[in-house]
Amino acid sequence: MDEKAAARKTAATRENIKNALLHLMEERPYHDISVPEIVLEASTARCTFYRHFPTKDDVLLACCKDRFEGLFRSMQEEPSYTFHDTSLGYYQYWETHKTFLQLLQKQDLLFFFTKNLDRFLYEVTGRTGEQDGDNAPPAKLVYHFFCSMSAMSGILMYWLNSGCRETPEQLAQFYVSFLAEGSEGDKDCRYFREHHTYPFDPNYV
Length: 205
Prior knowledge:
Layout: H1 3-25, H2 35-42, H3 46-52, H4 56-77, H5 83-96, H6 98-106, H7 110-114, H8 117-132, H9 139-161, H10 168-180, H11 187-195
């Protein structure tokens, strides 16, 4: 078997195991699911499971990472140059994948997603820098990135916990408003409440 065929087989096996866990999670509590049950659902061998994943938690972690890989690809395919467009792409992606987030929510496992959020996001930005041939970004830029991304993710979590009522466009408007407005009494904030838009162009990154 050549290297490409072996890589495809490895990827297919890992995908099969991840899908098996997610399917079982739709039916049973995560903490009641055992590795032998995942192996049975995936129609694979127990030794194969441990060749790819040390623990059940590592399978779930890989499922979370897959979603961030998808987010990375989505943002690369449609590059954004304003805070509004960046946040809109972010919320559109997660609306498309909200069933995964809702499954974690149902299982009380959103903490598993959020505690790894920074790491996944930083891996995405680090890879972008490598592709652009850039050196490590200055500390101020890194902190600015995590400040803005924490706000975006906080909005995402509230949106999920409150029933996913708003559209991605509305979420993006909220995010931009937090960046642009100084306080609830700001005239732009009142303007948005009356007109549901803003009287200024989106800020450029």
